Amino acid sequence: MTRPLQVLRTPEARFAQLPDFPYEPHYLEIEGLRYAYIDEGPRDGAPVLLMHGEPTWSYLYRKMIPGLVAAGHRVIVPDLIGFGRSDKPTERGVYSYAQHVRWMCDWLVAMDLRGLTLFCQDWGSLIGLRMLTAHPDRFARAVLANGGLPTGTVPVPRAFRLWRAFARWSPWFPIGRIVDSGCVAKLSPAEIAAYDAPFPGRRYRLAARLFPTFVPTTPDDPERGANEQAWEVLKRWDKPFLTLFSSRDPITRGGEKLFQRLVPGAQGQPHAITRGAGHFLQEDKGPELAQAIADFIRQAPAVDG
Hints:
Radius of gyration: 18 Å
Strand order of the largest sheet: 2-3-5-4-7-8-9
Structural class: alpha/beta
Order of helices and strands: EEEEHEEHEHEHHHHHEHH
Largest sheet: 7 strands, mixed
Number of strands: 9
Number of helices: 10
Strand content: 5-15%
């Protein structure tokens, strides 16, 4: 008999009075895990899926949701398992890159989302692009910002190696301040507290601590094969694909060129560099990003198939 998964669930009181985040959470339970997500805008609007990364949660998208909803879109923002209001398994061995992809693909199918425009950044891209390539029929377009799909065959930047070491060894792991350090415009104390809200204690931060170790950085990484298979799908992806990387991200800067070169759907798109934005460009340039996505959807009709 399989032992039930042991999980933590952040007390709802931790999410009281979040600045600029009036959105009611929705919940979906799959195989004993509760997934939290934001679902705003008209149900018949063209849906946009916003995937957060590490160590953030759906709060990251509070500056983008209003503009996308105003443009008539249904906006769906899930919290990854281990983050935000979603359940947080307590056992280290439960977590892996592959498991996070399975979890979010299960959620995607259970939600029966179709005709999606994907926006993904950071770990939202490592997971989101795997979701897209596993279920390409559910996606109409993709927008990639400050992310990638590594296979472990290219050296990683020194900035990432330092971040990975910090996540693994530092006795201090202040999530709100970590997010603040990845922004050009500094966060307010209330915003920093909002990023800390899902993680009231050390055990709640397990996934956030582990994520940097799951990035494929060597050729023998267990997820190299799966990411290479995903790349084969992307190399045949002829639906619209846009890159909106930022100018001041030391980890992913320049990574857009690979996608522009290899993804057929990226040809002829209005790719742009978001100036004056750091790693978390949703914080620095959220309304501008929302406008760029809405313009992209309007100007790039969905491709059948």
